[in-house]
């Protein structure tokens, strides 16, 4: 099972995401890092455990207020072995292909899609896209038809429950199980609400391939000993 640390970038800093209320996000206060700069936070995360992947949400790009392309490219150069999953608010083919050429795994977030045809065009433009199904409660943010075309979903899919992000309320297991049953061949990743090792064990038992986690890493709920014991 993959544990993928999450980096939420806003106005040049790593922020603590809470329930999708982006205007209220504040710079992260982490036990792992002396500052909320992306270099310090990533160094702290990799000092905690040698993670193979990280997920970056460029919130400025997602909300149309600029981007952190320079910082992300520097990070890519500094950690060439680290697989970066990037949600850069992609809604054009040119943006996707540019990042793919730089070796970044592109995440297509449903919240930035206006039409189902847009999803098909984007997903067909890159080799191995990751789809993020973004939910507010039980409502998909994005084209409603996206939930009806599970045969066209890629191999790797995130279930992003925004109102559980940073909430310590636990993952939405019912939704995850329901979606996984619709696309059992996919590799599913939970995002939002994961509190600690017990939640990870439940997700693993449900057949999930991984989880995107931020708060539980920064607050010490998942320390190195627990991570090593779980990941073997």
Description:
By secondary structure, the chain is an alpha/beta fold. It has helices spanning 38-48, 59-62, 69-78, 93-101, 116-123, 173-182, 197-205, 215-218, 224-231, and strands spanning 2-10, 13-16, 26-27, 53-58, 83-87, 105-109, 130-136, 139-140, 156-161, 187-191, 210-213. It has an eight-stranded parallel barrel with strand order 1-4-5-6-7-9-10-11, surrounded by five helices. The model has no long low-confidence stretch (mean pLDDT 92).
How are the SSEs ordered, and which strands pair?
Blueprint: E1 2-10, E2 13-16, E3 26-27, H1 38-48, E4 53-58, H2 59-62, H3 69-78, E5 83-87, H4 93-101, E6 105-109, H5 116-123, E7 130-136, E8 139-140, E9 156-161, H6 173-182, E10 187-191, H7 197-205, E11 210-213, H8 215-218, H9 224-231
Parallel strand pairs: 1-4, 1-11, 4-5, 5-6, 6-7, 7-9, 9-10, 10-11
Antiparallel strand pairs: 1-2, 2-3, 7-8
In helices, the fraction of residues equals 25-40%
**Ends apart, CA distance between termini:** 10 Å
Instruction: Record the strand order, biggest sheet.
Output: 1-4-5-6-7-9-10-11
Task: Based on Cα principal axes, name the global outline.
Answer: globular
Uncertain stretches: none
Query: If you average the pLDDT, what whole number results?
Result: 92
Number of helices: 9
Content-based structural category: alpha/beta
Q: What is the rounded Rg?
A: 16 Å
β-strand amount: 15-25%
Number of strands: 11
Largest beta-sheet details:
8 strands, parallel, barrel
Order of helices and strands: EEEHEHHEHEHEEEHEHEHH
């Amino acid at each position: 099972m993959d544990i993928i640390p999450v980096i939420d970038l806003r106005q040049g800093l790593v922020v603590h995401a809470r329930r999708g209320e982006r205007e209220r996000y504040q710079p992260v206060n982490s036990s792992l890092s002396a500052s909320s700069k992306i270099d310090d936070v990533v160094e702290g995360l990799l000092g905690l455990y040698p993670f193979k992947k990280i997920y970056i949400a460029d919130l400025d790009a997602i909300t149309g207020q600029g981007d952190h392309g320079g910082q992300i490219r520097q990070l890519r150069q500094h950690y060439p072995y680290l697989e970066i999953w990037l949600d850069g608010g992609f809604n054009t083919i040119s943006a996707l292909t540019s990042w793919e050429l730089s070796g970044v795994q592109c995440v297509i977030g449903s919240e930035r899609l206006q039409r189902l045809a847009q999803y098909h065009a984007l997903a067909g433009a890159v080799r191995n896209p990751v789809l993020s199904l973004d939910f507010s409660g039980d409502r998909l943010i994005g084209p409603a038809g996206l939930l009806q075309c599970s045969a066209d979903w890629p191999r790797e899919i995130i279930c992003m429950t925004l109102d559980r992000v940073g909430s310590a309320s636990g993952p939405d297991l019912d939704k995850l199980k329901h979606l996984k049953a619709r696309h059992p061949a996919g590799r599913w990743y939970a995002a939002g609400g994961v509190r600690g090792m017990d939640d990870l064990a439940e997700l693993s038992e449900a057949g999930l391939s991984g989880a995107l986690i931020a708060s539980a890493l920064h607050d010490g709920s998942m320390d190195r000993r627990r991570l090593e014991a779980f990941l073997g």
